[in-house]
Structures are given as structure tokens and as C-alpha cells.
Design goal:
This protein is an alpha/beta fold and 216 residues long. It is built from nine helices and five strands. A five-stranded parallel sheet has the order 2-3-1-4-5, sandwiched between helices. Bound molecules: adenosine-5'-diphosphate and thymidine-5'-diphosphate. The site of adenosine-5'-diphosphate (ADP) has 15 residues, from helix 2 and helix 9.
Amino acid sequence: MNQGVEVESATTPAPRGKFISFEGIDGAGKSTHIGFVKNFLESRGKTVVSSREPGGTALGEKLRALLLHEKMHLETEALLMFASRREHLAQLIEPGLAQGHWVLSDRFTDASFAYQSGGRGLPRSKMEALEAWVHPSLQPDLTLLFDLPLEVARERLDATRTLDKFEREQADFFSKCRDEYLRRAQQFPQRIVVIDSTQSIDAIRVRLGEVLEKLL
Ligand code: ADP
Ligand code: TYD
């Protein structure tokens, strides 16, 4: 009898982990806060895997290098974003969640809606078709949308790094990306939490702690 109980517990799968995506226009503070969220969750006993898109796998990182530095047709760009995502889901996100890990991704499909549809102007229906193909039944459990005015994001970016293909886009492009992000936050209020990124890093951490507590 005892033996039976042991066998059962040994084969009971770990509870599924949670998937959190980080979104916002370039310079909004995603990279700054992902490490804090990882530490916060680890301090609560979670095993956390943090990753990014495009990228997150060996092949995805090769696609990222192309996406961030080569000129290409806007539909090629959208397709490669989703190709990178498909690989990321297959190799890292799905297996991680199945093992009970919490998976953090610096960007996911909301970024394709914001950049390829909002910014570049591809019809949303194309993103919806790709989303339905690549992850028909999976959505992040939580999306943290770091939101701030374009000018503040631009100042922060200019102060820190060499800009890639996207970061060199004009204000109008980022304005459309931001609008699409905010539209999606209204459309999916249960999933997407908007974080006011004009606040200090410390104030944002307090807010992140409150949001994460609800998910734990
Ligand atoms: P993203 O990953 O969203 O492009 P980063 O996290 O790299 O943005 O932030 C861009 C720059 O802004 C970094 O130099 C970072 O230190 C700075 N930064 C991020 N959040 C804040 C904040 N709340 N206040 C002031 N500076 C910030
Ligand atoms: P980003 O995470 O901002 O990289 P970094 O913090 O190193 O600058 O992502 C790279 C760029 O890719 C960013 O400008 C947004 C763009 N992107 C899309 O256009 N569509 C997508 O689906 C994704 C995931 C990213």
C-alpha cells in the first residue's frame, strides 16, 4: 500500500509554472526590471527562467541578429518574429512551464501587434492568424506593460547605447507602437498590467511586488 502511495507521488507532475511577458517601447525599462522580478520570485521559492524575444534559443538568437540589423520586407519581419517565437515556445517556454518553472520573457506576441501592426502598419488580422497558428491556446498569465511618453524613452535610450534598426525609428513609429500596446491593455485588462514607467525605479519595484503577490 505504502509503495503504491510512493509511486503515485513520484509520478505526479509538478504544477504548471507561470508565464510572464515584459512589454513596452524601446527604453521603457523592461531589461531593468526583469532581474528584479526574477529575484523576487526566487525569494518566494520559484524556479525562474528568464529569456527574450526575438531570441531565447540558439536559432532564435540568429534570427534576432537578422531582425535587428538587416533590412527586410515587413511581412518577412513579422514571419521571422513568429519563427523565433515558435522555436522559443518549443524549446524553452512550454517545457519550462511543464516542469513547473516560472518563465519570464522580455517581449512576446504583444510586441508583434505593437511593432509589426501598430508601428509598421501590417493588418492586425495577419498577426491574429500567426498567433492562432503558433500559440493557439497559450497566453502569458501576466503581461507587464512598461508605459511612458516617447520623449522620456528616447532620452533614456540615447543616454545608454548604440541603437539597433528598431531603436533608430522616428517618434511617429513609437507613438503608433505605444498606442497599440495601450489598446491591447484595454482589450485584455485581466492579463495586461500597465506600469507607469515615469516613476523612479524604486517606486516601480514596489508596484511590481504588489502585482506579483496576486499571482503567487
Ligand atoms: P528597455 O529594456 O525597455 O529597452 P532599459 O531597461 O534598457 O529599457 O532602460 C533604458 C535605460 O533607462 C537604462 O539606462 C535604464 O537604466 C534607464 N531606466 C530604466 N528605468 C528607469 C526609471 N524608472 N527611471 C530612470 N531611468 C530608468
Ligand atoms: P528588445 O527587447 O527591445 O531588445 P533590447 O532591449 O536589447 O533593445 O527587442 C528588440 C526589438 O525587437 C525591439 O525594438 C522590438 C522588436 N520586436 C518586434 O518588432 N516585434 C516582436 O514581435 C518582438 C518580439 C520584438
